[in-house]
Amino acid sequence: MPDRLLSGKRVLLGITGGIAAYKAADLCSKLVQAGALVDVIMTEAATRFVSPLTFSALSGRPARVDMWSEAGGDAIPHVHMAAAADLVIIAPLSANTLAKLALGLADNLLTSTMLATAAPWVLAPAMESHMWSNPITQAHVNTLHARGAAFVGPGSGHLASGAEGVGRMAEPAEIIAGARALLARDGALKGRTVLVTAGGTQEAIDPVRYITNASSGRMGVSLAEAARDMGAKVVMVYAPLAVPLPVGVELVPARSTVEMCEAVLARLSAIDILIGAAAVADFRPAEAAAQKIKKLPGQDGLLLSLVRTPDILGAVAEVRALSGTPRVVIGFAAETRDLLANAAAKLAAKRLDLIVANDVTEPGSGFAADDNRVTLLYADGSQEALPLLPKPIVAERVLGVALNLLHDADARQYRVPGRDRVEGT
């Protein structure tokens, strides 16, 4: 399926020598499936791991290696390819090529093209752990960071040497997410900060048991990714998830409702939009046992005393009433009955700008599902029912509304008394 950000983009995919080059074939395929036009440049070392023919077949374009004998008679391929590129990805990036890029060396087609392009860089290093942690390598990483390069990975795990450690190339999906974040940096939410809560909180009973809910966190992650793809700086405060974490987002783990509340309140002054998509517990055990609770002979049951957890959106409303931030606050209402009535009551009680209501008992929708059927309830009393949609599409719709609400908030802030015209918009 074509990708909104990648479709039609000219992507220059550089591949350097390393066993992780086999992953680059999958990356190339996924970029093409997303609608990108992919030009591949391989170093000589890379061809010892994967054949250029592989990438020619996947991209539908010749994979280039030699700077001096290019197909078609192009005498200066590095200049033409550099000028055409909208984005550059190097995956895997070896320690050798990383050093060359930091020092501005141009001794092969890939490094010459990199030196000539003005396109943004996404770099996915892959190397042995000690090579990655070497101060020389880290100095080169810092240099490239300072020049605007975006690094994805490396990750930890089993390495080609047989050792375990940091140095694995990021997975293709992570690299594509990093590319999308880079392409979106001038999006509609550029310069704005969005905080999203996600996942289902866990309230400890003892060291091995807890009270939780069926939330997978998929909706919250989709919202964080949608905000990122609109150019926002995104903070995701998350309880345990059943889906992968998003790339290009500031991640703040918070297991319990208390921890999530503290993390949210500590960041409110820097937030433009808050979206509370986490499924937070309303009650928690009054006291968590220090040791695992053991059943006793003849014991028929266990009585738990529960107390209220903090009301996160209620606390946000109190802060917002005094400070005016966040400018926009959106909540979610996961209900099993009286959907619209319960959602409207929550909208009013939490003083929200918008609430997204869904019936989690509907088949194919809600918790753990890939899709969601929601109704948007606005503070002015209006409603908008959306059909069953994939959660990423629901997230895009919610962020579109959030952007409009933010523009309205900006207009109110800069409206000059006695004038009909709005200043600064």
Write the layout of secondary structure elements.
Blueprint: E1 10-15, H1 21-33, E2 37-42, H2 52-59, H3 77-84, E3 87-93, H4 95-103, H5 109-116, E4 121-125, H6 129-133, H7 135-146, E5 150-151, E6 155-158, E7 164-168, H8 172-183, E8 193-198, E9 203-206, E10 209-211, H9 218-229, E11 233-238, E12 250-253, H10 257-265, E13 273-276, E14 283-285, E15 306-308, H11 312-323, E16 328-335, H12 339-349, E17 354-359, E18 371-372, E19 375-378, E20 383-385, E21 389-390, H13 391-414
Parallel strand pairs: 1-2, 1-3, 3-4, 4-5, 8-11, 8-13, 11-12, 13-16, 16-17
Antiparallel strand pairs: 6-7, 9-10, 14-15, 17-19, 18-21, 19-20
Helix pairs in contact: 1-2, 1-8, 3-5, 4-7, 9-13, 10-11
